[in-house]
Amino acid sequence: MSRSTPPRRDDPTEEMRRLAALAAYELLDTEPEQAYDDIVRLAVTLCSVPAATISLVDHDRQWFKAALGVRVAQTPRSQALCDVAIRTPRQLMLVEDVLADARFAHFGMTIDGRPVRFYAGMPLCNPEGHALGTLNVLDVEPRQLSAEQRQALELLARQTQHLFELRRYTREQGRLLAERDAAARRLEASRDDLERRHERLKHSAARDPLTGLLNRAGLGELRENPDALARLDAGPYSLMLIDVDHFKQVNDRHGHLLGDRALRAVADSVAASIREGDVAVRFGGEEVLVVLPQTRLAHAAEVAGRVRQQVAGVALPFPLTVSIGIAGGEPGGDPPEAVFERADQALYRAKATGRDRIVVDDTPQVG
Ligand SMILES: Nc1nc2c(ncn2[C@@H]2O[C@H](COP(=O)(O)OP(=O)(O)OP(=O)(O)O)[C@@H](O)[C@H]2O)c(=O)[nH]1
C-alpha cells in the first residue's frame, strides 16, 4: 500500500450515482443472510484473521451486511477504512499497520477494545463499476497477506458480487411479475367495467325510460335471443296485449304528467302480476305486450285478471281501466306473428264490446 496522500473523495455526481446504485440493491438494513455470513467466515478462515466484514458504504455510515469478530452493525463513514478502499474500485487495499499510517491513525477502530492494526479490503462493485462497499479482513496485529490469501479475498469478493447480482435479478423479476400481475388486474378491471357499461347501454337502449319495461328494440333483441325463443318452443305459450282505456281523455283532462303516472302504474301492475320468465314490452304509446312462455290460455287469463285488479287499485284522481286481448300459440302451430295478430283482434273486441275487460281468442290453432 503506498503511503502517498489519501485519495481524493469522489466527486459529488459520481458519489450520487454510486449511492443510487447501492440503493437499487435494497440491501441496506436487511436481515442477516447465511450466504453472506458464510463468505465472512471463509474470509476469516482463509486469511487467518479474527474479523471480517461485508461493508456497504452508505451516505454517512458503513453498514455491515455480514460481520464476524465485529460487534457493531455499523460505524460512521468517517471512521471507515472501506470508504478509502472504494475509491480504487478494482483494487485490493492493504494497510499493514493502521496505527503507523498517518492517513488512518486517527480512525480509532477497535475489535473487542483492541485497536485495529491490520486492514485489507476488496471493493465490491456492480457491473457498471460502482464500488458499493468492500469485503474486509481485520486484525489487531500488524501483518501481511500471502499471495494466496489475497487471491482468496478477491475470489470471495467476486462471489459476494454474484450474490448481489442474484439479489438484484430476483428482485427485478419479482417487480416485473408484480407489475405484470397489476397490469393484468387493471386490464381485467377495465374489461369488467367495459362489460358493465356495455350491459348498461344495452339495458338502457332496450328499456323504455318512462315505464322501465322493454321497448320494441328490446323485443327485437329478444327475438334474436336463442334462450327466449327456446322458451317459446318449449310448449304452449300465450301473448297478451294490454291497452289503457280512453287514455287520450286522461291526457286531455288531467294533463300529460298524470297520464305518464298512469302509464307507469299500469307497467307496475303488469310487472307485479307476471312471473320471472314472462316478458313485458311497452309496445305502443299506451299498449303493453306480455309474452308468457309455457303458459296456457286459462292461466294467461288469470294473469290478465290480476293485472286488471292491480290497475283498478291504483291511486289516481280518476278511474283507470285496461282492456286485454289474449291469444295462445304452441310449437309447430301458428307462427308468433299470427298469434300476435289474434291477440290484437281479441283486444279490438275487448275495446269494441265496452272496454275494461279481458277477451281470450278462441280461434283453433292452424297446424
Ligand atoms: N302521457 C302520455 N301519453 C301517451 C304516451 N304515449 C302515448 N300517449 C297517448 O296515449 C293516447 C292513446 O290514445 P288512443 O290511441 O286514441 O286511445 P285511447 O284514448 O286510449 O282510447 P281507447 O284505446 O280506444 O280506449 C294518445 O293520446 C297518446 O298521445 C306517453 O308516453 N305518455
Automatic annotation (TrEMBL):
UniProt enzyme class: transferase
Coiled coil: 177-204
Keyword Coiled coil attributed: yes
Keywords: Coiled coil
EC number annotated for this UniProt entry: 2.7.7.65
Domain GGDEF: 235-363
Record field: catalytic activity: 2 GTP = 3',3'-c-di-GMP + 2 diphosphate
NCBIfam families: GGDEF (TIGR00254)
PANTHER family documented for this protein: DIGUANYLATE CYCLASE DGCM-RELATED (PTHR45138:SF9), REGULATORY COMPONENTS OF SENSORY TRANSDUCTION SYSTEM (PTHR45138)
Protein name: diguanylate cyclase
